[in-house]
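[Q] Does anyone have a clean structure-token version of this?
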Amino acid sequence: MTSSSMNMMGRITFYEERNFQGRSYECMSDCADMSSYLSRCHSCRVERGCFMVYDRTNYMGNQYFMRRGEYADYMSMMGMSDCIRSCRMIPMHRGSFRMRMYERDNFQGQMHELTDDCDNIMDRYRMSNFMSCNVMDGHWLMYEQPSYRGRMMYMRPGEYRNFTNMGSSNMRFMSMRRISDSSIQYNTIAQERNFQGRSYECMSDCADMSSYLSRCHSCRVERGCFMVYDRTNYMGNQYFMRRGEYADYMSMMGMSDCIRSCRMIPMHRGSFRMRMYERDNFQGQMHELTDDCDNIMDRYRMSNFMSCNVMDGHWLMYEQPSYRGRMMYMRPGEYRNFTNMGSSNMRFMSMRRISDSFY
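[A] Here you go.
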């Protein structure tokens, strides 16, 4: 095998104990039963490529996506009830992506063809679920909740006539994304400043960081954009983070406490549209925005607004003109009262779109 072909392959090393201790097994391909090599495996290091790991043999049970990085104790990181039992290497795919999803088993009912990521099939196609699919090109991750959250399932090219046979009888798929060298967003959050101490790699929303780290004082956004919060459940002060290193964000951003929760911001390449209202419950003066606004007083003669309806795209709202001061992230949805979002003392004076130029 040539060195160039070796570099295209993935490589993952499993360890019996946490923190990369005990016997180990290096894997560069699929493995249907880890017990053939290790009696147990509680930590791993992905040195190259991407893998799907499973908590049952023969690629069954709960699935977890792993890319390059160190997972010193993935059972507590991912909420796994048992250790890894099998793993599958995900080949790198640089061509086109194409998948057809069907409303019912055996390719029956409503059909839609996808060639890109979809963060919510209900919003895009008015489908509450789909029961079979044909993956023609590329490798995909399917998620049980919108915005790439919840349990996941890996789909490689092939026909999937009934998901029940794959051990997913109680799963509904609400979003899906391509597995490419640029499609997966992730950041790494560390316990100590300067990226020291234990770390947790995050590729989706996390409502309570304490499940993984007792504290978190630095982070590195390696791809994508995230909103981080100084309280659990996406509450409290919010801070926008794009690709870069934040060695001590508490002093950089004036945070009174460390990160407690974080939310991934999906990339949006379509149109942007939002209606803002002078009073609660969409009452009073209304204005519709389709682009950035650096001062709502200058443009609309409004000193504030109290509710809004975000129809398209993802937005950042700021309490001062020219995109300054405290901020709030708004994804598509109806916001009838900002008080319920922990912003009772905030006034919004400017807003901007989170477009692909941020990524």
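[Q] Thanks! Anything notable?
[A] The longest strand covers residues 11-17.
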